[in-house]
TrEMBL record:
Protein name, entry field: Uncharacterized protein
Domain DUF4986 span(s) in chain numbering: 543-628
Highest taxon, organism lineage: Bacteria
Domain Glycoside hydrolase GH146 substrate-binding: 653-788
Domain (Non-reducing end beta-L-arabinofuranosidase-like GH127 middle): residue spans on this chain: 420-515
Domain Non-reducing end beta-L-arabinofuranosidase-like GH127 catalytic: residue ranges: 35-410
Species for this entry: Bacteroides oleiciplenus YIT 12058
Matching InterPro entries: 6-hairpin_glycosidase_sf, Beta-AFase-like_GH127_cat, Beta-AFase-like_GH127_middle, DUF4986, GH146_SB_dom
Keyword match Secreted: no
Signal peptide: 1-22
Gene Ontology terms describing biological process: carbohydrate metabolic process
């Protein structure tokens, strides 16, 4: 055989192995999505609907940022929403096409995936150095980083985070879509990225990684597993933000007020490095982070964060006060992290969390009719959620939402050697081709408390079947019956029940999982409770008044449900001790003709006596409750006396607010086009602040709402020291010169309202608000900024 022909044969062999083994080559215990067929049920509906939604997107508009950055003529206009993050959704979309092609075999998804790869290949070839990306003016930022100017990342909208999405898209086109071209492009992009950071020392890397960078450590660890080349694993470690890694490895929780979805993808990378590099420090850090987030910082639906940030323990009440509850992206990445930890240590507690988050959060973030995606899931009683529409909202949670609903088959079953794990109770059919085994799971869970597994084999086959005993099923109630034997006898919750036998064609396993109702308190806030039945969070509909912006447009903040807040005293509350409440819940009554819907006699006041509890994931186009104020009569009277006036003042302030910026919080500052020089940030009294020093400044673009009678409200600490004289400007025109020193002498935060002359705002859709320090002085700290209309 001549050399040319030998190389050709070798390439074909490698390509065949790559395309046939790609998914389980990276995720060694995972069945390829094509081997897990979803059967009728909510997850199949969500996946099928999502394919329809994906095919409505204009792929040329998603590709436009990449072509523009490569100097090629775009075939469509870039999307206007979140335009400073151009390209990020394009990467997610490529992942989603590959995932849904693998899950459903839809040929249109495959064709679009291949078209995207061909167009991205043109871009990569035009760059001629391996780069392909949609970061606006991207080559400037990458060249500056290469020169050592790592601070440039703060002048852009999270450029590494943006670029990570196309890294992941190319990788996923290979592992899910079997596309070898995408694999080669991915590795070329990896090699390019290494040249950008090669000149940087450890200190410069650490400074750069303080800016959100997605899962760059994860994709380089994946490149190492794909090639066996240590340079990629070493690069993954270079992308490991030591500020977080070291604290998590030392088992120190430093997450208070930190941007949540900046941290979770970092730890997904830590897990991959631990898994592939057998590095104990990374493993300890990953496990500690997961435990901290899951057990201390997550709500009952499995999501975490409010206003995109982790709350401090003494600020967890803000979960039920804020509009902006858990973010969908966070849970997407927590599920990825959970799968990774399960690969290393197949323990039932990981599957327990996965089930909770998948049913209650991820499934709930897709509208079951028009397929729109949800960004924030508010936990505030009687608030609501808004949904995206195709070719309109280009939020991060649209990107992960595109992917979410194709991956439902990924963790129902896993395998290890001759062991088959049944992790989730989801109607599905597994075809374990390598073993010649088919397993059919018939279930209407959670509407029914049972599942039936039927085994199909061509010849008697010996293997272990491990069925999860979930945390919510009492040991005495759980049953796993096969050939007359109850294998669940003596089993404990949050474990696996093992059936090891030689299986014959048609063998059946009947699983019974009786559910009980229980209460879970809001983290660190015992007076707010949620109601769970088994793993399912129960909520209640609270009407459809003022669902403003229910279907989002291209507005910059359209992902936030801006409709009016409802007072906590105008929502249902529960009176009684925990024992009394639990006793009433134990006697809840099914609603005739409505699966998994219940009334609870005597639980609510007369006004709400007919309130129906139902799975939260089925509540859409409505205000809702997932957390309930619950206390004894005496405690409620005290609470009402202490809080009712404060609540009314908060609602009045919210009603007056035209626009607001939570200073030093990442997303609000990006949304308001922040610019700054000589500015620092921090946290004090549980709130974040920003200042500017020695002639420095910071500024935000704020919307006026077409109002002409506005004031600027600024939140300060009431007992500042040192030199703190500064100017506040509206569109570079002086509004006021402020001096905070000795002004109040109060050990508390104070709000100051500055009237804005009409001449500064008349006819303007937005204004730039600037805080500029005097030489030798500090402007601020500023804790919060609002534009207010007249009372």
């Amino acid at each position: 055989m001549n050399r040319k022909r030998a190389l050709s044969v070798l390439f074909c062999l490698v390509s065949f192995l790559a395309s046939t083994l790609a998914q389980d080559k990276l995720y060694t215990n995972t069945f390829p999505l094509g081997q897990v067929k979803l059967l009728e049920g909510p997850f199949k509906h969500a996946c099928d609907l999502n394919v329809q939604i994906l095919l409505q997107y204009d792929v040329d508009r998603l590709l436009a940022p990449f072509l523009k950055e490569a100097g090629l003529q775009p075939k469509g206009e870039s999307f206007p929403n979140w335009e400073g993050l151009d390209g990020h959704v394009g990467g997610h979309y490529l992942s989603a096409l590959a995932i849904h092609y693998a899950a459903t075999g839809n040929v249109d998804c495959k064709k679009r995936m291949e078209y995207m790869i061909s167009e991205l290949k043109r871009c990569q070839q035009k760059h001629a150095d391996g780069y392909v990306g949609g970061v606006p003016d991207g080559m400037k930022v990458w060249n500056e980083i290469k020169k050592g100017n790592v601070g440039i990342v703060w002048k852009y909208w999270v450029p590494w985070y943006n670029l990570h999405k196309i890294y992941a898209g190319l990788r996923d086109a290979w592992i899910y879509g079997g596309n070898e071209e995408a694999r080669m492009m991915f590795l070329e992009l990896c090699d390019w990225g290494m040249t950008i950071i090669a000149p940087l020392n450890d200190e410069q890397m650490e400074q750069m990684l303080a800016n959100e960078f997605g899962g760059m450590d994860e994709v380089y660890a994946d490149a190492y597993q794909m090639t066996g080349d240590m340079k990629y694993l070493n690069t993954a470690k270079r992308f490991s933000h030591k500020w977080l890694l070291d604290s998590m490895a030392a088992q120190v929780d430093n997450l208070d007020n930190k941007h949540a979805n900046t941290q979770v993808p970092k730890v997904v990378g830590y897990q991959r490095i631990a898994e592939l590099g057998h590095d104990k420090k990374y493993e300890v850090a990953t496990e500690y982070f997961w435990n901290t987030v899951v057990y201390n910082r997550s709500l009952s639906l499995g999501g975490n964060s409010r206003r995109e940030h982790f709350a401090a323990a003494d600020d967890c009440k803000s979960y039920v006060e804020d509009r902006e509850g858990p973010e969908s992206c966070n849970t997407n990445n927590m599920l990825k992290l959970t799968e990774g930890l399960f690969r290393m240590h197949p323990e039932a507690r990981y599957a327990d969390f996965y089930e909770r988050a998948m049913y209650n959060h991820i499934l709930s973030t897709q509208h079951p009719e028009h397929g729109g995606y949800v960004y924030f899931t508010s936990a505030r009683p009687a608030h609501y959620r808004v949904y995206s529409a195709p070719n309109s909202a280009m939020w991060c949670c649209v990107g992960t939402g595109m992917e979410n609903h194709g991956k439902y088959g990924e963790f129902i079953y896993t395998h290890a050697h001759d062991s088959l794990f049944v992790n989730l109770f989801v109607a599905s059919e597994l075809n374990w081709k390598e073993k010649g085994i088919t397993l059919i799971q018939e279930t209407r869970f959670p509407d029914e408390e049972s599942s039936r597994l039927t085994i199909r084999v061509k010849k008697p086959t010996k293997f272990k079947l491990l069925v999860r005993h979930p945390w919510w099923a009492d040991g005495n109630d759980m049953k796993v019956l096969c050939k007359g034997k109850d294998y669940a006898s003596g089993s404990s919750p949050s474990s696996y029940i093992v059936i090891e036998r030689t299986w014959k064609n048609g063998d059946v396993v009947d699983i019974t999982t009786p559910m009980k109702v229980h209460i879970e308190a809001l983290p660190n806030v015992s007076e707010y409770i949620s109601i769970m039945r088994g793993p399912i969070l129960l909520g209640a509909r609270m009407g459809t008044d003022h669902l403003d912006g229910l279907i989002a447009d291209d507005g910059r903040w359209a992902h936030i449900a801006h409709g009016p807040l409802v007072s906590a005293f105008d929502t249902p509350f529960i009176i009684g001790s925990r024992e009394e409440i639990q006793s009433k819940l134990d006697n809840m009554k099914p609603v005739a003709g409505k699966a998994f819907c219940y009334t609870v006699p005597g639980l609510f006041t007369e006004k709400y006596k007919d309130l129906v509890l139902e799975p939260f994931f089925r509540i859409h186009d409505s205000r809702y409750i997932m957390y309930w104020l619950a206390m004894t009569h005496e405690k409620y009277a005290e609470f009402q006396k202490a809080e009712q006036e404060k609540e009314q003042l908060k609602l009045l302030l919210d009603k007056r607010t035209v626009d607001a910026v939570a200073t030093a919080e990442q997303q609000p500052e990006v949304d308001h086009l922040m610019k700054y020089e000589n500015s620092t940030t921090g946290t004090f009294e549980g709130e974040t602040w920003r200042d500017a020093r020695n002639g420095g400044y910071f500024q935000y673009n704020m919307m006026t709402g077409d109002e002409s009678d506005l004031s600027l409200m600024v939140r300060y600490w009431g007992d500042e020291t040192r030199n703190r004289t500064f100017d506040i400007l509206i569109d570079d025109e002086l509004l006021v010169t402020e001096n905070l020193v000795g002004k109040w002498k109060r050990k508390e935060l104070v709000n100051v309202e500055y009237p804005i002359p009409a001449t500064m705002i008349n006819g303007k859709k937005s204004v730039t608000v600037t805080f500029r320090s005097k030489p030798g002085n500090i402007a601020g700290g500023v804790f919060y900024i609002r534009l207010l209309k007249k009372e």
